[in-house]
Amino acid sequence: MSNRQVVVLGTASQAPTRHRAHNGFVVRWDDQLIMFDPGEGTQRQAILGGVSIARLTAVCITHFHGDHCLGLPGVIQRRALDARSSDAGLDELPVFFPGDGHQYFDRLRSATEFHDTSRVRPGPIESDGFVATLGDLTLTARALRHRTTTYGYRIDEPARRRFDKAELKRLDITGPDVGRLKRDGSIQTSSGRVDVDAVSEIVDGQSLAFVMDTAACDAAVELARDVDLLICESTYVESESRLARDYLHLTAAQAATIASEAGARRLVLGHFSARYPDSSVFAAEAAPIHSDVVVASDLAVIDVPSR
């Protein structure tokens, strides 16, 4: 099983339906558990999806429309409850959000009376660029084009060295010798000196982008540039392109075009208008434009493509 996955908590846009909870996604990436846009009902969806709120390492909010943040009070209060039942307590949880919406964060943060032991750290974003380091991952953000300040997010892991297993076997380099070769740059073997570059190469790390609630714009393409997986809103199909234009949202075709132009390997569509009870319409529109399209469904688990 991959240790780099997306757990879909909900796929509805403004109004949840019988079969779609409010928008919400969680990224499992090695030791990181990053929640994006917790909509209403997030606590229950997290339970059904096997996501431990107590183990979250970050929350990223794109903007302060309700379907992207009304689950935050429940997340915070659940952490406070879990902290009181844990002898060790909980690690500090950074919550990133558009800085000009700090008033909304404050209201969500203390929406009701409760004994707050949640250890939440506000992370207001004021401009494009670097946001934080999460373990080995780098989190960046770019402003999108919506009716309120909205940021899309991207996570990147650092470049890493990949060894040629066949070449290591041929040279009889195994176990601790591989570690020494990586650390020292060369080792002496029975066949002579072996340089690390002769049996390995530097490869780019994997990456993921999260683009929600935006009209088509250059920032969306740049966030998705060469990512392994792009999670992208797909509120409408082209027959309602006027609505997409008026409300600054994307159609499935536009989302697929962004993924194609950016060179994203896999496209995950979500944030569907309730006017489409059958999600297959989004796949039908996006698949001719991009070769790897996944139409998200509530509680689905989607792998980040391996390299």
In this structure, how is the largest beta sheet organized? 7 strands, mixed
Question: Rg from C-alpha positions?
Answer: 21 Å
C-alpha termini separation: 15 Å
What percent of residues are in strands? 25-35%
Catalogue the unreliable spans: none
What count of helical segments does DSSP give?
9
Structural class: alpha/beta
CATH class of the largest domain: Alpha Beta
Report the order of strands and helices: EEEHEHEHEEEEEHHEEEEHEHHEHEE
Count every beta strand, where a strand is a DSSP E run of 2 or more residues: 18
CATH superfamily caption of the largest domain: Ribonuclease Z/Hydroxyacylglutathione hydrolase-like
At CATH level 3, the topology of the largest domain is: Metallo-beta-lactamase, Chain A
Helical residues, percent: 10-25%
